[in-house]
Write a structure and sequence with these properties.
The chain has about 210 residues and is α+β, with helices and mostly antiparallel strands. The chain has 2 domains: about 120 residues, Nucleotidyltransferase, domain 5, CATH 3.30.420; about 60 residues, no CATH class. Helix content is about 30%, strand content about 20%. It starts with a strand and ends with a helix. The C terminus is likely disordered.
Length: about 210
């Protein structure tokens, strides 16, 4: 059995050529796909006594909780992180440089954003530039409308997230996603087509019978 697992539609699939569906969870329509992901992984690992090297999935599974939990267990999370930084016309977080030794960010204009306070509801720290620096900055229109200065939030697990962000250019990551597309996704397409045929129950498809 391959040591790569793919997550797709509330199921855990062996990512190798065997294409074995290891676990399936049926959830109500209001449950988002990414929510039961970790439970599925831990249950599958316990049930089959397997220790995969990596887990692949599409970006809907790329929540911070999922990625950090997978990486903390010694598995590589080959899952895209949703891009939440380019939803506005302002400078995105990746245009600010973090200096770990000083624990500050430097903005595109070279001004410092220093630690302000812990975020009230999330596991993150907020950094803020000085109001005077921002209000007199020629780049302010591209950065913020706040009179208190531009702020950024940095996750306490940012080092882990940076590691996950570094996977996509690697050949191992590309190979894992190709395997998911070629070996795993067609399997579920076949299952769906069979399930839509009232004469072939979905349970038969999932057990490999026709």
């Amino acid at each position: 059995m391959d040591r790569t697992w793919a997550i797709i539609r509330d199921s855990v699939v062996d990512g190798g050529k065997s294409r074995i569906i290891l676990n399936v969870l049926v959830t109500p329509s209001e449950v988002m796909d990414n929510q039961p992901m970790l439970d599925l992984l831990w249950r599958t690992r316990f049930r089959w006594k397997l220790w995969p090297r990596q887990v692949t999935g599409d970006k809907k599974y790329g929540t911070e909780d999922n990625l950090v939990a997978i990486e903390d267990q010694g598995m590589r999370a080959y899952i895209p992180i949703p891009d939440m930084d380019h939803r506005t016309e302002f400078f995105s977080a990746d245009q600010f440089r973090y200096e770990a030794e000083r624990d500050i960010y430097l903005c595109p204009a070279g001004k410092e954003l220093r630690f302000d306070r812990a975020h009230a509801t999330e596991r993150s720290r907020r950094y803020r530039a000085g109001a005077k620096d921002c209000n007199h900055c020629p780049l302010k229109a591209k950065c913020t409308t706040s009179k208190q200065g531009r702020s950024l939030c940095r996750s306490v697990d940012e080092a882990c997230l940076d590691r996950v962000r570094a996977y996509p250019p690697t050949e191992a990551y590309k190979k894992a996603l190709r395997k998911r597309q070629v070996w795993v996704e067609p399997l579920f397409g076949s299952c769906q087509r069979l399930a839509w045929d009232a004469t072939v129950p979905l349970t038969a498809c999932l057990s490999g019978q026709q």
